[in-house]
Amino acid sequence: MNIKQFRDKLLHNWQVKLSCIAIAIIVYFFHQFSGYTKKTLVINLNLEQQGIMTPAEQLHVKNVKVIVRGKNEDIQRISEDNFYAFIDIASASKPGSYKFPVLLIPDSEVIAMDTVEISTKPEYVEFAVDEKYERYVQVQPMVKGVPAQNFDYEIESVNPSSVKLSGPKKLLQNMKSIQTAALDVDRKSGEFEINLPVENKNPLVSFASGQIPYVDVKVRFQENKKTKSFTSLTPEYRSLAENLVVESENSLVDIQIEGPVSKIDMLRTEDLNPYLDFAGITEEGNYELPVRCLLPQDVNTVNISPVSYKVTVRVMTEEEMQKKLEEENKEEEKIQELDSNGLPPLPDNFQIPVIPNINGVNKTTSVTDNNSSEEVAD
């Protein structure tokens, strides 16, 4: 049979022949796939970061769809646990945003199923990465609560004062500090030391050591300060020689002080005692002396007005000296009237009130005119 005869036979009733071929193909595929089914699984998308880059943002795609197609008996045995889906950023060599393919690893059971077809949706995930970077960051205690009334706290020390973090370079360069777990100062005073863990709340950052570091925090409480003003105080003359007298009349003094609330609230006007110190002045003349004031510990002078006085000092006359001696004698006579304990004489019939004894026996003390006492049991 020559070529012409073969061609004529091939083309004879070619429409019928082509239809038969098409039907055969359809029958074949129908037979092949009539026992097949499809299943869609939703599994977690993981992130692999073994290279020099690190995530610069959180993975916004949390899950991917895995579409499997195969024989009914195979598909029924497949579940989410048979797959591991991830994106690998190791291929990135510099900071930026990339489209990373979604990679899928089936387990050995699925691999053994030759007829199973697998696809994922989405196939790519766009993701930003940055250079992996390490840096020491200051540790800042996270304080909660309110100290005892009129007290405030001060963080005296944090040891160690910084910890080493690992993460995206741009983020760490702008990171000022990292906090500890809560430090409770509620209604506390004095001082104390506590060991606290450092808390990392940023998922893009990790501790370079791989472990949660702890720091020792020392806290000291200080009483709040308060200012108070005292006006129209009369300054006292101190260390003035016995033969000298001050002629000039001084104006009154205004004083403003500052100190702990408890001490300032207890101070009264008579506790301040502003004075002029005449120590070392032995001759008549005009002098300018600073106004001074004795204050309790931790209490300081904020302002004194006026800060100094101009005074005129002269020697006493004989009459003034005599008058001064008489006044001093009167004071001595008053002192002599006091008893040895510094108390004025008590009435003869004075009796101390009865006070119950802890043993159930009442005792009273009678005081006689000679200030002796004796105990009498009822």
Q: What would your notes on this structure say?
A:
The chain is α+β, with helices and mostly antiparallel strands. It has 8 helices and 24 strands. Strands 2, 5, 8, 10, 11 and 13 form a 6-stranded mixed beta sheet that branches. A 5-stranded mixed beta sheet has the order 6-4-1-3-7. The chain has a 5-stranded mixed beta sheet with strand order 16-19-20-22-17, with no helix packed on it. The longest helix is centred in the first third of the chain and has 20 residues. The termini are far apart.
Tell me, rounded to a whole number, the average pLDDT.
83
Helix content: 10-25%
Quote the distance from N terminus to C terminus: 157 Å
Uncertain residue ranges: 354-378
Largest sheet: 6 strands, mixed
Number of strands: 24
Radius of gyration: 49 Å
Tally the helices: 8
Any idea what the shape is?
rod-shaped
Structural class: alpha+beta
Strand content: 35-45%
Task: Sum up the structure in keywords.
single chain, 378 residues, alpha+beta, 24 strands, rod-shaped, disordered C terminus
At a glance:
By secondary structure, the chain is an alpha+beta fold.
What is the element layout, followed by pairings?
Layout: H1 3-11, H2 14-33, E1 36-48, E2 53-55, E3 63-71, H3 72-75, E4 83-88, E5 96-101, E6 103-106, H4 108-111, E7 117-121, E8 124-144, E9 151-159, E10 162-168, H5 169-173, E11 177-184, E12 191-197, E13 206-207, E14 214-223, E15 225-233, E16 236-238, E17 244-246, E18 253-260, H6 261-266, H7 269-272, E19 274-277, E20 285-293, E21 300-305, E22 308-315, H8 318-336, E23 363-367, E24 373-377
Parallel strand pairs: 1-4, 8-11, 16-19
Antiparallel strand pairs: 1-3, 2-8, 3-7, 4-6, 5-8, 8-10, 9-14, 10-13, 12-14, 15-18, 17-22, 18-21, 19-20, 20-22, 23-24
